[in-house]
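User: two proteins, same treatment. go.

Assistant:
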Amino acid sequence: MGEKQKRAAAARAVNGARDLATAGQMMTGQRAGPGAQIEKAAAECPWGDEAFDRRYAAIQQQVLDAWEQLAAYVESLGDAAERSAAEALRS
């Protein structure tokens, strides 16, 4: 691969990495919007079955926590990939 092709590939990688970081930010936004709505609705115990609510609450919290963690990971992965690709462009 020639120098020109390497630079073009690195530039595409920077753009892709930015898109990945943006996707992580969007996931965070979804967690703050629809995810919070799910949390609020569940707090009202809409099922009327206390045993179900207890089981659901534990699983719900695991899913919402995983959502937050995954969003942060995707964003940080995009940031790290962007730094790496930008460094490749500089060298």
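Protein 2:
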Amino acid sequence: MGTSAGRNQRDAKELLNNICPSTDYLKLGNLLDEMIAKHNALCAKLDADAGVTDTNYSATLGIATLQSRLAP
């Protein structure tokens, strides 16, 4: 794998998308990346909401991105 951030991001998704022929149809890497992004966005919204108790949701419940998990 390369060392540039753009290549690592592409490689992480493509690695999951191309694990086997059935995952190519499902685009597993894209699906996981989208779900992680939406989860982290929800945590950020909860942190910004004044009506929610003072918990740092992003720090406690945030999920690391695919690129950071599969980066060399």
